[in-house]
Amino acid sequence: MRARLERETNLIGQTGGRLRFALAYPNSYRVGMSNLGIHILYELLNSRADTACERFFLPEFNQLLSMETQTPLNRFQVAGFAMSFEPDYFNAVKMLRLGKINPCAAERTELDPIIIAGGACATFNPEPLAEIFDAFVIGEGEVIMPPLVDALLETEHLPRRRRLEKLSQVAGVYVPTCPQKVSRRWVTDLDAFPAHSTILTDDAEFNMYLIETARGCGRHCRFCMAGYCFRRPRNRSLDVLKDEIRDAKRFGKKIGLMGAAVSDYPQINELCRFILGEGLTMSVASFRADSVTWELVQSLAASGLKTLTIAPEVGSAKMRAVVNKGLTEENIFNAVELGLRAGIKNFRLYFMVGLPFEELDDVAAIAELTARLKKFCGGRLTLSVNPFVPKPFTPFQRAVFAGRKYLDAALKLLRNELKNLRGVEMISESVRESEVQAILARGDRKLSSVVMRSESAQDFRRNFKSAGLDTDYYLRARSFDEPLPWSFLNQGFDEKYLRDEFKRAAEFKSTPPCFDGCKRCGVCR
Description:
six-stranded mixed sheet, Rossmann fold, alpha/beta, 20 helices
């Protein structure tokens, strides 16, 4: 740990301040330091004179200490966990145990830290974690954390119960012991909160200087929790991004542009020209095949990119309408052609199986599209094919999880269809692991007692069974009149909008993307 700390640059941590705040990422250091949210919160908290924030990551060896001062977790007054992915629930439980903190919130004492969760999973469905965490941040931390920290400081001498009552009065904070309707909060002016890497290290998964170009997405992809979680769509101004890039030059790192779809940024060509003009190289977190430009692809190739990643998600025109991806085959082939023109010969393609209204013919269409792309490009194709997991507050939140029998058949069909295509590799996520994610994503509070006893997906499956819970109950389709565990949260759009989008999917109809001021979802008004 000390060796890693010595390899970090631009460390802004402090050890003074009345409030000692542990910022925990429930995965490895390499993964956690590539998460821009950790950088944003670290800078935000340490910019306060009254707060000292230190980082925690899932340790390689069973000793959990802070990065900055090697202090145990239970010595902090507050611990905030970034919960972005369901499999990390078990890592969070393991970290609490290693930190000598009871995973059961009701059994913690006045001497224990207040344990808080934020991130996409906390925002959309905190209930499977409701008996583990004392409070949840519902929305974007930049606007919620300052009043939350103020409330923690104002109540530092009060009993734990009274402190949590006070936290429940902060807009955007959900306290399970003080149930009430909670509205998601988000940043209205991104320029007021520049988002970039704070600490630089060569040990991160992405060895780059990360800069967020935009937040939110108005594309209405019906499967995408991230798109709905960060709605409404907002762009940073080009001038602010240029200032961040100029500041990044002193570190000599590749610029990693972050956003739901970086190619949707209105001034992406100007941004690319500026980055290369400053003598820097660049990469992007994602782009859309229907908005990618020659300038963007050329800039990526000039930066050393060898493999272009495209996310068709599905193979047939019918399923493109169902998921509302908004792509055509022409868009996909055009993106590949741009890559070839720029000298990029290898492509990575993301697909899903088990989507609502999908049939095996639609799965076979993935193989047919792949064969046409392989013939067109001649290079190496890598297919990442994953089971679809229904997520809360998306139009598909009530859909059935396809189940092992169908998913195994779909993946087997694809492998058989692709096995004779040279230069094509297919990788897929475990169906059993996806099943656990599906249970957790739409779970209720009954799962909390199971999660708090589990430090892995295997533990969870065993504890789930011993608790007498029914897998089919959690994976089934939900009727439109059934209350959902997360319905007490207000995300800014109503059930009718999600229901209408599901009906459009059933009719194989697309929805146009949001524009500034559109009224379809209710958030972008």
